[in-house]
């Protein structure tokens, strides 16, 4: 059976409709960084997704070719994830999507190394005729986060995030945005095949314990 991160590590992929506090360990990803409105047809975001999925499936399907990856095991390609931010804004401003910066990524098993990625880029370039130089292998440790399952349109996320802010305030926490800690989303549904009201998106916000005034 192919290893499925969503099933084997349910605590990271099946939050409820109410905010919860969780500690996210180190994970590694295929990642590409870009800018712009993710809804723009032919925009950088959608082009980058093609690069990520091409590489992820090239690595997964290596089992059927002659190239043997050390310590390989079959896996279900995990869902697309995104880290989002805008310059000089804490969190994100949904009214100005053109100002988005993003890191789009797909989680990878531990056996995926820089050497494996270099091989996958070469194979994918031959098959797809695309430039994969912008894709990198990164490791991130998010640490303490508040997460929730958002149901419905991405444009309705502010109401869900408001619930998260209330939870953060009630639990003596505060937001902890930085270059390493971003607004994080995990997309469990394919928006091209799923009705808006049925979309499922995990939202994570980085947090830390709130400093007391006398500290």
TrEMBL record:
<dbReference type="InterPro" id="IPR008319">
    <property type="entry name" value="GyrI-like_CCH_Lin2189-like"/>
</dbReference>
<dbReference type="InterPro" id="IPR029442">
    <property type="entry name" value="GyrI-like"/>
</dbReference>
<dbReference type="Pfam" id="PF06445">
    <property type="entry name" value="GyrI-like"/>
</dbReference>
<protein>
    <recommendedName>
        <fullName>GyrI-like small molecule binding domain-containing protein</fullName>
    </recommendedName>
</protein>
<feature type="domain" description="GyrI-like small molecule binding">
    <location>
        <begin position="18"/>
        <end position="208"/>
    </location>
</feature>
<dbReference type="InterPro" id="IPR011256">
    <property type="entry name" value="Reg_factor_effector_dom_sf"/>
</dbReference>
